[in-house]
Write a structure and sequence with these properties.
single chain; 341 residues; alpha+beta; Fructose-1,6-Bisphosphatase, Chain A, domain 1; D-Maltodextrin-Binding Protein, domain 2; 8-stranded mixed sheet; 5-stranded mixed sheet; 8 helices; 15 strands; 30% helix; binds 6-O-phosphono-alpha-D-fructofuranose
Length: 341
Amino acid sequence: MEDNRVLTLNEVVIQMQSAFPYAKGELSRLLMHIGLAAKIVHNQVNKAGLVNILGDAKSTNIQGESQQKLDVYADNVFRKAMQASGIICGIASEENDEIIIFDDDLSLDGNYVLCIDPLDGSSNIDVNVSIGTIFSIYHRLSPNGTKAQLCDFLQPGTEQVAAGYIIYGSSTMMVYTTGLGATGFTYDAAIGEFCLSNDHVVTPEDGRIYSVNEGNYIRFPRGVKRYIKYCQEDDKATNRPYTSRYIGSLVADFHRNLIKGGIYMYPTTASNPNGKLRLLYECNPIAFIAEQAGGKATDGNGNRILEIKPTDLHQRVPFFVGSKNMVDKAEEFMKEFSEEE
Ligand code: P6P
């Protein structure tokens, strides 16, 4: 008989812990705390239109971007949940210029640090477009019992012990990985649980969706321009022309492409000569998920995102992520036309 019992996030996390014989359950508990924070943010996002939590918080983050009230709210919710866990000794957040150090005794002994974009795509909050939380977890490098240090956060993405995102959309979903594949959960508000909805997310090697802000076309690298034209050419043998889909919310664009197949690109542009997306709390966690689902993530110049050694908390990199064969094709054009820049 088919087992159609609902499995919750906490049950799945505990089950997966058995795959790590030496696990002390800390990472499991941490993922549960993240799930709890996500439920709290879900409640606010879902009624943002009803309470005075929309709009500009009249403050700006290090990126110089105006902070939306929900941004700041989400940052506070995840920060409190992480400190309550006693497992995290510090946080690097898009919403804060410097690392946040937890100096209570329990947290000082925490073995992990978190990099987070508490509410990505926040410019879409007021217009009811899907937004998301993106997180990345590392073992600390600094000694236990001492304050977290910058070195704990400036680790290459290959060192992530877990990563994931929550998408607050037509339904709220969480997708995460601990390196044993990508797992998807859908939030059931009726029971207040994230329920297993895809126990092994696999992204198609090919797709027909390309996601890029073509408003920046003029200043894209030639390779990107050529790849976009390649996507638009009429060639039935290779299922072209592809479809252009761009929501302007990384988590929403990536999640759709992960399921259906596709490529998301944020290349260098005039206003973002190093690309716009941040390595630590946007590109690395999304790249980890993409690779675990059979996809690929590079900077467009043949460099695997997960192998880039970070030099700054808010470092930006060009980002090409999604179906393996589509990223490879984009890389081909980038390589062929790079000399002509
Ligand atoms: P643009 C949101 O600000 C974000 O960081 C990603 O979620 C999104 O994909 C991208 O920026 C959108 O940027 O320049 O196309 O509006």
